[in-house]
Amino acid sequence: MGPILSIIVVNFNGIQDTLELLASIEKFLDLEYVEVIVVDNGSLNNESIAIAKYYPWSKTIRSEVNLGFAGGNNLGIQASIGKYVMLLNNDTLLKDNSLMKLPDTFNADSTIGVVSPKILFNNPAGYIQYAGYSSMSRITIRNKTIGLMQKDEGQFDTITDTSYAHGAAMVVSREVLENVGMMSEFFFLYYEEMDWCEKIRSKGYRIIYDPSAVIIHKEGMSVGKESPLKKFYMVRNRLLFAKRNRTGVIRYISIVYQILIAVPKEFLGLLFKGNPKAALSTLKGVFWFLSDK
Question: Into which family does the record put it (predicted)?
Answer without folding.
Answer: Belongs to the glycosyltransferase 2 family.
